[in-house]
Amino acid sequence: MLTGTSLGLRRVPGLDDSQKKGILFQLRNAVNTWCDNNTGDWFAVRDLFGGDNYDWRGSPMQRLYDKHSDNGFDHDTSETKAGIDAGWLMKEFLFYDERMFEQGYKGRVRGYRLMR
Description:
Helices cover 48% and strands 12% of the residues. The protein is α+β, with helices and mostly antiparallel strands. The protein is globular and about 45 Å long. The protein starts with a strand and ends with a strand.
């Protein structure tokens, strides 16, 4: 569950049910690992899937990049759009999760933290 403003969700097109379930499963694992190791700290998608974790090849997250690349976008644009899609899927996952997450901004991007 999420608290805060702007609780609206947005559908991410171009994924079949199996692909979306795989991505949500990967998001869940990343969030659980973050929350276990960074109690109360804010996180954003880029903390979990950017930086040293930017290489999504072989993971369900790769489909987010591929769907934009397959539509003719260059590498940088596909990467940016995939990150935006990942953000919407993260918000959806946290919205339906049984735990309570606070939502706010971490710099210029939407951030979250587990409320205990």
